[in-house]
Structures are given as C-alpha cells and as structure tokens.
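quick one, 353 residues, struct below
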Amino acid sequence: MKNKKEKSTLKGLTITELQLLFKGIGEPKYRGEQVFNWMYNHLSTDFNEMLNLSKSLREKLSQQFSLQSLELITVQNSPNTGTKKYLFETNDNHKIESVVIPEKERNTLCISTQVGCPLDCKFCATGLMGYKRNLTAAEIVDQYLLAAKDYGKENITNIVYMGMGEPLLNFDTTLKTLSIFTSELNKGLSRNRITVSTAGIPGKIKQLADSGLRVKLALSLHSCFNDIRSKLMPVNNKYSVEEILDAIKYYSRITNTPIVFEYTMFNNLNDREEDIKALTKLCKQLSCKINVIPFNSIAHMSPGGISSLLEPTPMDKIVYFVNRLRENNITVMIRKTQGSDIAAACGQLAVKY
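---
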C-alpha cells in the first residue's frame, strides 16, 4: 500500500491556478507559467529539472508538492497493429488504462476519466468492472504526460476522451483538463485534435457547448431506436434518443462543429434496413459523420446476460450497410480494429477487481 499522506500535485492545475499558487507562497506569478511549461511541454517529473527556477525554490517545491499522480505499471505492445496499452496505478491503488492507436497520418491517445464506469453499457468491458470513482484532473492529464514521455510528445497528435468512464459524468474535471490541453502555452495540441466521447448526457452536452472550448464531440449512438438502444445502453432509459439528439444538435449549432456518431454493429440487432433509413434521416439534419465499429469481444470479462449474447455483424454485411449510407451522401468510416490481441480495442478496456 502507498503512503496515504500524499503531497498535493501541481499537475492538473491551470495557468491561473498555478499563478495564484505561486503568488500565495510569495513568488512572482510568472513562476506559474514556467512550471506549466516544464510540466506540460517538457514533461518534467522532477523539480530539479526546472533550471530557470532557483535552487532554493526547487527545494521548496519538492518539500511541499509532488509531480506524480499516476505510476506507470506496465506497457503492452500489439505486434499486429503497433497499438500500445498503458496500465497506470493511482496513489490510492486504483488501476486505469490508456491506449495509443497508431494510424497513417496520426497517433491518437485514448484516455480515461473514471475508474470503471457507472453506465453499464452491455458491449463495453469497462462497464462490467463497475464504477469506483472519478479521476482527478492530475490523473487525467498525467495519462497524456506519461504516455507522451514514453511514446514521444511530438508523436501523439490527437487525444480522445474514449477510455474508461463517461467524461460528462466527471464534467468539471473534464472541462478543466480540456482547458489545460488547449491552453496557448501547451504546445503541440489544438482543440480540433481533441474529441470528447459521450454516451449522451443532454444537460452536460449543452453545458460543454456553452463552455466556449469548441472541441470535437462524439456520441456513442449505436441505434436510433429507443428500444434497441435501451437494451444496449441503460442510460437510454433515463435520457431518450430524442433528448440526446436535441442536445447534440444544440452542440453542433453553438460550436459550428461537425458531430461524430459512433456506431458499433451487432448482428441482427442494429444492422437492419430500418437502421439504415433512420441513420440517413438523422444525418440529413446536421453536419456529421459516422464511425462504424465492428464489435470487439469482451469475453475476457466473462460477461453474462445480454452481453454474452451479442455477436458482431459479419464484415460483408457491414460493408453493405456502409455502402448504402454512402449512397445517401453520408460520410461513413469503418474503424479498423486495433489492439484486440492485447484487449486494447474499442470497448475492451477494463481492469478486473
């Protein structure tokens, strides 16, 4: 067990918070910008690396604060796709996962916002592990900083909030980390390369729209029909498809940002002719694209109930489905499965408790 009397970490603090902190300990405000630069651009994990701070200040910071909120436990590499999965441990002994997904023109880091997830989506391994707690801003940001230190900061071009947990149920913290990632002082990342994925929390979607951050938004849709979506995603019993899509249209209108619909395909469940028609009707109403995702096995979590009965749509049927949508001038991408050999593909992230 780790020492429970942890020092507070400076990671996860915004520029403004760092400036106020340094002012509070009798130092000039610009020290906050210097430390921000060391943490987020130089990936420093030791105050002694911050050479434009005096030795006495570095010692003072070392005594009072920490630069660690996560410990990197293991790294798994997929020999098939080059996907890289990171297992981190928090200071209170919880474990979370993040994944770097390499593609031809970009490398995307998929980060987590909760330890587990309370939404219990039937196709998602994270939901099967249950919910423990929200991650702190430091723990969310540290996934990026530690992965970037290993993978190369210049090599990580995109961030998606699509790992463990529902980002909008950890809303204030998610918003705070987005402001850190999109800060003008944080070099190498821009808001148009950051995507927040949600199962659909209408009020929070609208709040995110009003925040002014204008990051990309992805909705885990998976069906346009309430009966089917409720079977797959219990959150739909609380927020109907109609409520969620109303919020999505609001987000698109306020931010002038195209929406991404994530659509995992299940055999004879959401791959029917009526699904093609419903998606076509929806996509005529706003600027969007659809990411079609082949269902990835969650057998490593020994699922029961409907989770154990779900089967992937055969690839030839997926291709037919996608082509029918494209005939209606809808932008559709088939997301290539990456990292399934190390349980790092979409929907597979989980730590057994």
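The radius of gyration is 21 Å.
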